[in-house]
Structure to design on (322 residues):
């Protein structure tokens, strides 16, 4: 993707360099401490509306972004699945050219990641991926903020993701985790780790940050001494028809108290939610004392506010072009 000069987008975790990711997370912490202290959408941005387009359903993303945009002094325009003409009656490119005349930023939850790449290639306002089939980078900013809060930092910490390592969360944990200097372990059945291109990119980034990425099939080895244990649903949006097959494939990869006991004594449990108790995680873990999932969900607000403010600030040319 070659974006328009002077416009920054966030459609993949590595769209922020390690230093930039850290800057956004610092800002998120500051915004959490002072939620109404920064209103760039009321003062300084070219526009005050942020488009939130959903091709898939959502609870956390929708509420956290709508609340966050309001706290930034702007207004959120939520477009629910099936409401926009984009992709069936009108091209992504034509829709982008319309939206950039009306909004400060476009946030889009969709299926094929390629659609976000096409939008970001021509948009003069920041484009943010609020989940595609390949990545969920906004979730990872919230997760890293939570790890900072709970463990005092991310660098050198071991983060173990257990389950479907080939889904959007597996890819994003690999990329965002090493960007934050973490040692990321993905535990998944043979052939269900992140895509080869993601593994290569994560290992390149890890060389700069001192992090690492390991892909394992042995969940217990992966959990050993980990600081963070994380999982995700085995049946992501769009995979409902494969439910039976997926439950069988990932059945041995449930995060239980026995798995948590292998991790460091201070280890935390995270999940992007929604969670399916008795499948990817047992109820005693997600509802137990090591779980930080509600803080993690709240942190979507603060992390995305910081991201939007940062992207608007860095996209100086966007204001001049429109
Ligand atoms: N974690 C997450 O993206 O939640 P929603 O699907 O509810 O937005």
């Amino acid at each position: 993707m070659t974006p328009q000069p002077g416009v920054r987008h966030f459609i993949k975790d590595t769209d922020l360099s390690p230093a930039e990711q850290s800057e956004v997370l610092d800002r998120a912490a500051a915004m959490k401490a002072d939620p109404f202290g920064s209103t760039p959408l009321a003062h300084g941005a070219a526009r005050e509306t942020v488009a939130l387009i959903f091709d898939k359903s959502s609870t956390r993303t929708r509420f956290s972004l709508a609340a966050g945009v309001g706290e930034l002094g702007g207004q959120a325009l939520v477009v629910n699945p099936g409401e926009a003409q984009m992709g069936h009656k009108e091209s992504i490119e034509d829709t982008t050219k319309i939206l950039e005349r009306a909004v400060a930023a476009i946030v889009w939850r969709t299926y094929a990641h390629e659609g976000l790449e096409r939008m970001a290639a021509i948009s003069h306002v920041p484009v943010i991926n609020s989940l595609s089939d390949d990545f969920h980078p906004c979730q990872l900013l919230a997760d890293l903020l939570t790890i900072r809060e709970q463990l005092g930092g991310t660098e050198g910490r071991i983060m173990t993701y257990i389950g479907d390592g080939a889904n959007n969360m597996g890819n994003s944990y690999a990329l965002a985790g090493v960007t934050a200097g973490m040692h990321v372990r993905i535990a998944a059945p043979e052939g269900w780790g992140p895509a080869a291109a993601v593994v290569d990119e994560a290992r390149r980034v890890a060389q700069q940050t001192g992090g690492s990425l390991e892909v394992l099939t042995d969940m217990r080895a992966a959990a050993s001494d980990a600081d963070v244990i994380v999982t995700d649903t085995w049946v992501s949006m769009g995979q409902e028809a494969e439910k039976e097959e997926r439950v069988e494939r990932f059945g041995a990869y449930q995060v239980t108290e026995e798995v948590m006991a292998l991790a460091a004594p201070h280890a935390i449990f995270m999940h992007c939610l929604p969670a399916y108790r008795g499948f990817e995680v047992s109820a005693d873990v997600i509802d137990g004392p090591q779980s930080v999932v509600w803080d993690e969900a709240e942190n979507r607000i603060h992390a995305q506010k910081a991201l939007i403010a940062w992207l608007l600030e860095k996209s100086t040319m966007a204001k001049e072009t429109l």
